[in-house]
């Protein structure tokens, strides 16, 4: 025997095979961006004598040597698929504002494998499942807790998109006193309302988005020097700034 195999069930084998096919399709979706024609499983015949081995998660094969008995025959057909067909049948590649679950160290391998089997490979995939009101815990046979997983993914996304402050100005007029903060990734999660604390006092955020924060403050709380502004953007992001109001 080429391998000491072990007992396995059909469901696990099919899950493993489908995951590998999904990976191949994801690769094709990336190639389709600059290669209008590539190859898929169809038309060209290829037969191999192999010894398959399955460890409960992955299927591996060993090529049979000449004259070796007991090998399995696998026939593969190769053909072409166009970029239009790929776009119609495949999800888009992971974008720069998304993050792959494979890159998140806090998620264990079993959870990553379970998620991939149900088609979840990125933070945006999980968001789509939540919006569709799908019970992730039920479809994963209670192997995945959505709340815990969502926190890990959101933390990873925030680490990948840290806030960057480019400019801060005081705007004092008869209509009120404001601090205007400009930058990138100041607010990235719309599910949370940011909080601003100026010199130890809670301030009012009149406008808060990815590129600008418009914070209303009490003029009596503004010092000429040594002002402190703290922004709590979401449960995973707090940033502090030292400001002065010198004219």
Describe the protein's architecture and organization:
By secondary structure, the protein is α+β, with helices and mostly antiparallel strands. Helix content is 27%, strand content 35%. The chain contains six helices and ten strands; from the N terminus they run αβββαααααβββββββ. The chain has a seven-stranded antiparallel β-sheet, with no helix packed on it. A three-stranded antiparallel β-sheet has the order 2-1-3. It is elongated, with a radius of gyration of 27 Å. The mean pLDDT is 80.
SSE arrangement:
Layout: H1 10-31, E1 37-54, E2 59-63, E3 72-82, H2 83-89, H3 109-117, H4 123-131, H5 136-139, H6 146-160, E4 164-173, E5 176-184, E6 195-198, E7 201-208, E8 212-217, E9 227-234, E10 237-243
Antiparallel strand pairs: 1-2, 1-3, 4-5, 5-8, 6-7, 6-9, 7-8, 9-10
Oligomer: single chain
Q: Kindly estimate the percentage of residues that lie in beta strands according to DSSP.
A: 25-35%
Mean pLDDT: 80
Structural class: alpha+beta
Low-confidence stretches: none
- Which descriptor suits the 3D outline? elongated
For the termini, the CA-CA separation is 85 Å
Biggest sheet, spatial arrangement of strands: 4-5-8-7-6-9-10
- The whole-angstrom Rg is 27 Å
- Main beta sheet, described? 7 strands, antiparallel
């Amino acid at each position: 025997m080429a391998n000491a195999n072990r007992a396995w069930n059909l469901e696990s084998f099919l899950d493993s095979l489908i995951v590998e096919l999904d990976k191949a399709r994801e690769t094709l979706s990336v190639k389709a961006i600059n290669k209008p024609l590539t190859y898929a499983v169809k038309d060209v015949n290829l037969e191999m004598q192999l010894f398959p081995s399955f460890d409960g998660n992955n299927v591996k094969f060993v090529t049979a040597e000449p004259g070796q008995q007991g090998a399995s025959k696998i026939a593969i057909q190769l053909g072409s698929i166009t970029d239009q067909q790929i776009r119609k049948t495949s999800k888009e590649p992971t974008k720069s504002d998304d993050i792959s679950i494979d890159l998140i160290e806090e998620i264990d391998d079993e959870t990553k494998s379970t998620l991939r089997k149900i088609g979840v490979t990125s933070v945006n995939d999980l968001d789509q499942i939540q919006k569709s009101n799908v019970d992730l815990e039920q479809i994963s046979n209670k192997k995945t807790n959505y709340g815990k997983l969502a926190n890990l993914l959101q933390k990873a996304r925030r680490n990948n998109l840290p806030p960057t402050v480019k400019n801060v100005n005081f705007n004092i007029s008869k209509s009120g006193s404001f601090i205007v903060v400009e930058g990138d990734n100041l607010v990235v999660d719309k599910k949370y309302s940011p909080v601003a604390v100026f010199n130890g006092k809670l301030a009012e955020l009149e406008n808060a988005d990815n590129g600008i924060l418009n914070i209303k403050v009490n003029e009596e709380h503004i010092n000429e020097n040594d002002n402190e502004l703290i922004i709590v953007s979401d449960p995973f992001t707090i940033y502090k700034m030292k400001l002065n109001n010198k004219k």
